[in-house]
């Protein structure tokens, strides 16, 4: 056994010995360096990255321009805490976020550290603005792992089990997953039914005048890359306007070019949310998030009611500024469209011959493949997905699962990957699916 292999086993043993079992690891490998869409472990083995740190690396790993600006910033200023003294990267970044956010009118922005923090603060300002306490969320949603985030999240195992009680006054309503609509029912009728259920909830669940916010992902991330129908999204906007409810669009996973637009909101003409939450690829791997919204809403709390010690850290803010520049200059939304089109072509062709592929869906380069035991019952097939994931790893392709039943493979590779890397990764994925299916048949 060579020295590198011994070192690898030693590092994995540290994980077993010192990291709580609740911290899951899908691909048991220790990555020591990465560049773009390629990663290397401590033994020098090369992997293709189709997970992107769960949607964090849209501009790739260790992008040279990001490395440069972070290095320069580190030589000048690590931290001040914005509550003590201001720093330039924070101020420049909120200016840019307000410029690019697809929200009309005057806007303001708050910087934080994680997606869960962004969601928490969006709900806080909505409650402060409206003076109300209730929140509406949707089935199969994922909004974080904090107590409020879990209250909004709609997946029991492993996220919610044994972690209650949760925050009260959270009401969960159906999300129109068109793949799982009743047999024989039209898409339009199914959407109509979902809208009617929401309106009826103001009679059966909660008074509309008690609802502070409604929060939704335009494409559900952990929920399995289910795309919200445009008519449903517009109905939510109209209902929120009618009842004075703050409409929050969670773009933590969909934002920053992933769906073929800078923000998924832009796919829905005239949607105009009140607040958008952002994180993940915003910082290219550094921890940063944001709440961007109408000035009157974000200004509704008292002084000192928002923030945190590390929010808008100068290093992460500098990285985010460069991310925005790269995405606009290199037109990464267009690149996402190309990656998505190529991925859909391969996976839908494979769907024709693999009966366990129930659905291939997504938006731009946010592509999900749902596996079922048979297409008639649409019963989830998580065991097959686990085997496919294992096969991908053996072929040195890093993937990540999704779905309420863990029966979806989701593609979130860096948007800067080359066509050669894209095609190689798709070839490995196709081979993994074919081999796994053969073993299960």
Automatic annotation (TrEMBL):
It catalyses: 4-aminobutanoate + 2-oxoglutarate = succinate semialdehyde + L-glutamate; (S)-3-amino-2-methylpropanoate + 2-oxoglutarate = 2-methyl-3-oxopropanoate + L-glutamate. The keyword Transferase applies. CDD domains: OAT_like. GO terms for biological process: gamma-aminobutyric acid metabolic process. Keywords: Aminotransferase, Pyridoxal phosphate, Transferase. Its cofactor is pyridoxal 5'-phosphate. Belongs to the class-III pyridoxal-phosphate-dependent aminotransferase family. PANTHER family: AMINOTRANSFERASE CLASS III, LEUCINE_METHIONINE RACEMASE. This is (S)-3-amino-2-methylpropionate transaminase. It comes from Alicyclobacillus acidoterrestris (strain ATCC 49025 / DSM 3922 / CIP 106132 / NCIMB 13137 / GD3B). The lineage of its organism: Bacteria, Bacillati, Bacillota, Bacilli, Bacillales.
């Amino acid at each position: 056994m060579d020295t590198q292999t011994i070192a690898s086993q030693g590092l994995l043993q540290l994980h077993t010995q010192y990291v709580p079992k609740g911290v899951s690891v899908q691909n048991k490998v220790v990555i020591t360096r990465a560049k773009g869409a390629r990663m290397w472990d401590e033994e020098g083995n090369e992997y293709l990255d189709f997970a992107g740190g769960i949607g964090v690396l849209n501009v790739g790993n260790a992008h040279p321009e990001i490395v440069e600006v972070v290095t320069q910033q580190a030589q000048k200023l690590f931290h001040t805490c914005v509550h003590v003294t201001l720093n330039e990267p924070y101020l420049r970044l909120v200016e840019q976020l307000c410029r690019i956010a697809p929200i009309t009118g005057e806007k303001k922005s708050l910087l934080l550290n994680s997606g869960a923090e962004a969601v928490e603060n969006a709900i806080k300002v909505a409650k402060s603005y409206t003076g109300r306490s209730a929140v509406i969320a949707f089935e199969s949603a994922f909004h974080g792992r904090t107590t409020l985030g879990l209250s909004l999240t709609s997946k029991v195992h492993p996220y919610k089990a044994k972690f209650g009680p949760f925050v009260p006054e959270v009401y969960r309503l159906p999300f129109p997953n068109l793949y799982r609509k009743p047999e024989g029912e039209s898409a339009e009728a199914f959407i109509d039914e979902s809208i009617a259920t929401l309106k009826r909830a103001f009679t059966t669940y909660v008074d509309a005048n008690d609802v502070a916010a409604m929060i939704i992902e335009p494409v559900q991330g952990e929920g399995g890359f289910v795309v919200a129908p445009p008519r449903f999204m517009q109905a939510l906007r109209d209902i929120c306007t009618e009842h004075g409810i703050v409409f929050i669009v969670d773009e933590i996973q969909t934002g920053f070019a992933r769906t073929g637009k800078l923000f998924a909101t832009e796919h829905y003409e005239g949607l105009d949310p009140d607040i958008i939450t952002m994180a993940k690829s915003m910082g290219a791997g550094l921890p940063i998030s944001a709440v961007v919204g109408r000035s009157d809403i974000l200004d509704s709390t008292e002084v000192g009611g928002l923030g945190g010690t590390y929010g808008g850290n100068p290093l992460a803010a500098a990285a985010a500024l460069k991310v925005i520049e790269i995405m606009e200059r290199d037109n990464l939304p267009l690149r996402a469209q190309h990656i998505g089109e190529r991925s859909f072509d391969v996976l839908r062709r494979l769907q024709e011959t693999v009966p366990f592929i129930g659905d291939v869906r997504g938006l731009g380069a946010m592509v999900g493949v749902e596996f079922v035991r048979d297409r008639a019952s649409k019963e989830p097939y998580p065991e097959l997905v686990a085997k496919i994931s294992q096969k991908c790893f053996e072929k040195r392709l890093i993937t990540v699962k999704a779905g309420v039943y863990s029966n979806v493979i989701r593609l979130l590779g860096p948007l800067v990957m080359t066509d050669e890397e894209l095609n190689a990764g798709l070839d490995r994925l196709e081979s993994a699916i074919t081999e796994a299916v053969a073993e299960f048949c």
